Amino acid sequence: AKQSGRGAACFFDRDLDRVIRERRKIERDLERAVSHDELRLVYQPIVSTVDRRVTGYEALLRWQHSPHGFVPPDKFIPIAEETGSIIRIGEWALRTACTEASCWPDELQIAVNVSPIQIESRDFTETVEGVLAATGLTPSRLELEVTESVMLRHSASALATLQRLKDRGIRIVMDDFGTGYSSLSNLQAFPFDKIKIDRRFIGAMEQDEAALSVVRAVVGLGTSLRLPIVAEGVETEAQYAFIMREGCAEAQGFLFGAPSTAIQVQPRLRLIGA
Ligand code: C2E
Ligand code: CA
Ligand code: CA
Ligand code: CA
User: Domain EAL spans what residues (predicted)?
Assistant: First the structure.
């Protein structure tokens, strides 16, 4: 028994060592991901619940690491945030998404996720303005999706930055709402144009009363703050019918389309635009 106990401890150490080494490697390789052309954006449609028409697309990062292959964003973005490489990656994503969207019909929005680290960086406003100037994208077509953590950290400077961006006509979206710990007064103080309910609540609401209550509460909150609500992760017609009935203005999820590359998105759009 003793023998196997020690064996288990050794396995644990070796595992830990492997995890640490793998992480260091991701950290190093992330620094080079932009210059090595390993990042891509995919675009997922967002539809209006009025007529199910596409109102815009959310840009989502993909990292094709060589030789490891696909690394999911949930794995590398937190690391990029810790090392600071999210600044460079985030700027690349913003520039690429806005360049892409500038070729789309004017009525389509482009939603880009931004990390709190980017918003807190000193020249974020200038970066966004530079990208808009370079791509010629109308500011009101750009939506920046920010998570609740932006309100919790250095909220005064983040608030000032988001307000400046909003004053320029850019739209600010509260992303993943319900998953963090923001207070209602924070929500009111920040210049949001829209609230996105996280997909975990949409996915669970049919089986779970609590998730259903969260969805209802967020829609109620949006109504009283006069903010449209987007439901994320809508996979079934039943979920769509439900969030429509509850009063969500927009929906996003596999039911309307998975994230796909710009090459797949554009031909369809050209037909609509033509
Ligand atoms: P998110 O902002 O909440 O993005 C929505 C996620 O839900 C995406 O995962 C999307 O592929 C997935 N999804 C969409 N519809 C459905 C559905 O119907 N069912 C299910 N099960 N999933 C659905 P993805 O692409 O893996 O991205 C994960 C997270 O990584 C994003 O969550 C976002 O927080 C972060 N992320 C992705 N791209 C960027 C980026 O450019 N910058 C930053 N800062 N974060 C990003
Ligand atoms: Ca998002
Ligand atoms: Ca998110
Ligand atoms: Ca989410």
Answer: 23-273
Pairing of strands 229-231, 39-48: unpaired
pLDDT at res. 274: 41
Ligand 1 near 116 CB (within 6 A)? no
Task: From 223, 200, 224, select the one nearest 211 (Cα to Cα).
Answer: 200
Nearest CA to ligand 1 atom 10: 259
Decide whether any atom of ligand 1 lies within 6 Å of the 199 Cβ: yes
Q: Which of 187, 182, 145 is nearest to 165 (CA)?
A: 145
Atom of ligand 1 at shortest range from CA of 252: 15
Q: How many residues does the chain have?
A: 274
ipTM of the assembly? 0.98
**175 Cα–ligand 3 center, Å:** 6
- What pLDDT does 264 receive? 62
Instruction: Give me the pLDDT at residue 248, please.
Output: 97
Grouped pLDDT means (10 residues each) for the chain, 274 residues: 52 81 89 92 96 96 90 94 95 97 95 96 96 98 92 83 97 90 79 95 94 92 93 97 96 96 61 48
Ligand 1 pocket, residue 98 CB under 6 Å: no
Cα 274 to ligand 1 centre (Å): 30
233 lines ligand 1 (CB under 6 A): yes
